[in-house]
Design brief:
Oligomer: single chain
Strand content: 35-45%
Largest sheet: 5 strands, mixed
Number of helices: 7
Helix content: under 10%
Number of domains: 3
């Protein structure tokens, strides 16, 4: 049996993401497709401010079970997914930060929301007992009326209609991996946080055996079983993936993209751009872990490639620009950027049928963005032999469309070559191949290749060389069409 951990650091009828609440079309239509999931309102009791215990005190989570976890203000907490099977919502408060940890067992979606109200008080959510396209519908206890379909997290009724909740970054991983990532974690205790319910209802949730039992039989592996799915509402495209295949879904700057676990290589380090956000997705198959990070550090967009791990975590990678080494937590553990940390991007895992219901036609990752071997040795290694007067600047603007400027400085007159390459080192465009005087120079790249054809959006490298002096430097740039 598996259950999941989610991490927090700091969508008619198809709803294409990620729209602002006021942009959602068909919210009234969504309301008309509400269906009862069986239990009535609060028939599935949400936990609120449960107790927490040390990992050594937990007997209801196996090493390979998946859990939902958060890290807020340096405090790590784990919410076992098997609590989510039976409660679906865990309202919690960590210091002055309130969150709602939500799991829909029927769509495989675990999302974490900011639940701190404007006055600093805690917003509590309950389980409405209703579903839309098999997805959990939460209700807001502030007015007891506003409904939020979990996967669009926007009010479709009540006092907070059209208001969108803030999605926080989330990671899914096994209990064993979560403990490796955060040995000091605390764990939500079963049977607690149920004070608002009567004695009879609370008494149903004190058994370890209950939480070790998945309540929906073979639902997670039966691709033909779409519980309470309504064909008239939206029909997923099952020619792309099977219904219950898991994808990592991102919605950024008006664009959505799914990364199928089935297709991601173990240890994958994927460089990509979604919307206008340069990101890297790192993946460990054994622990069911896919984490997206923003790959901009100190105004520089980095490009990463996988390397054999040397530390305790299963995925490590280096950036082409500085040669720094990074780990699964997004920490630079060696090199010029040591001590820096990548910022995690909000995302969540989902069964394919659910993702495609709300994101019909969105892009699906097809293998792009993997750098097998950087097109030159690490910049950090080159830099020690490069005179200070030989320097390749970061292009500006970056990302760019339709053109960008590249500045460089030469120590003396000599033969110069400036060229653009794909992420796999294939030549795209020679910008300079002639003698140049010493000093500062500027070159424009218009996004065309040597044949005058526009190249596709993506990450490219540009390299400056003075062959007679044995000097070269390389940087990356991102083109957005």
């Amino acid at each position: 049996m598996r259950s999941i951990v989610m991490t927090v650091v700091a969508l008619g009828l198809i709803v294409n993401p990620p729209l602002q609440a006021s942009e959602f079309k068909g919210l009234e239509t969504l309301s008309s497709h509400l269906l009862s999931g069986g239990p009535g309102k609060d028939g599935i009791p949400a936990m609120t401010n449960p107790l927490f215990v040390a990992p050594s005190e937990v007997s209801y989570v196996g090493e390979e079970d998946l859990v939902l976890g958060v890290v807020i203000n340096g405090e790590a907490r784990a919410y076992p997914e098997n609590l989510g099977w039976w409660h679906e919502i865990i309202n919690d408060r960590i210091g002055d930060q309130s969150i709602a940890v939500t799991l829909c067992p029927l769509t495989g979606t675990g999302l974490v929301f900011n639940a701190t109200d404007q006055d600093g008080s805690q917003i509590e959510f309950g389980v409405s007992g209703l579903l839309i396209n098999s997805n959990l519908v939460m209700y807001d206890r502030r007015d007891d009326a506003t409904l939020y379909p979990q996967m669009i997290y926007t009010g479709i009724s009540g006092s907070f209609k059209d208001q969108q909740l803030e999605l926080l970054p989330v990671v899914e991983t096994t209990w064993a991996m979560w403990k490796r990532l955060h040995p000091d974690t605390r764990v939500a205790q079963l049977g607690t946080g149920l004070d608002r319910y009567g004695d009879r209802q609370r008494s149903n949730y004190g058994s370890v055996e209950l939480y070790l039992t998945y309540p929906y039989g073979n639902y997670r592996t039966n691709h033909g079983d779409l519980f309470l799915f309504v064909q008239e509402t939206a029909t997923p495209d099952l020619s792309i993936l099977r219904a219950k295949e898991v994808v990592l879904g991102l919605c950024l700057d008006g664009q959505a993209k799914a990364y199928p676990f089935r297709d991601l290589p173990d240890g994958a380090v994927v460089n990509d751009v979604v919307g206008s956000t340069p990101l890297v997705v790192v993946f460990d198959r054994t622990s069911h872990t896919a984490i997206p990070y923003n790959r901009t550090v100190a105004d520089q967009t980095l490009n990463f490639y996988a390397v054999a791990p040397e530390g305790p975590l299963p995925v490590e990678f280096k950036d082409v620009e500085t040669g720094s080494r990074w780990n699964l937590l997004g920490e630079a553990i060696a090199g010029p950027l040591q001590g820096q940390r990548l910022v995690q991007v909000p995302a969540y895992n989902s069964m394919w049928f659910a993702w495609d219901t709300y994101h019909r036609g969105a892009e699906v990752w097809a293998g792009e963005g993997l750098i097998d071997t950087p097109p030159t040795t690490a910049v950090a290694e080159e830099a020690s032999a490069v005179p200070a007067r030989f320097f390749l600047e970061q292009n500006y603007p970056n990302p760019f469309n339709p053109a960008t400027q590249i500045q460089y400085t030469l120590p003396e007159r000599g033969q110069v070559r400036l060229a653009v390459y794909t992420a796999l080192g294939q030549p795209v465009r020679t910008l300079v191949d002639s003698a140049r005087e010493g000093g500062q120079h500027q070159q424009t790249w218009d996004g065309l290749d040597d044949r005058g054809k526009a190249v596709a959006s993506g990450t490219y490298f540009y390299r400056l060389e003075m062959p007679q002096l044995g000097l070269s430097q390389i940087r990356s740039l991102t083109l957005l069409r």
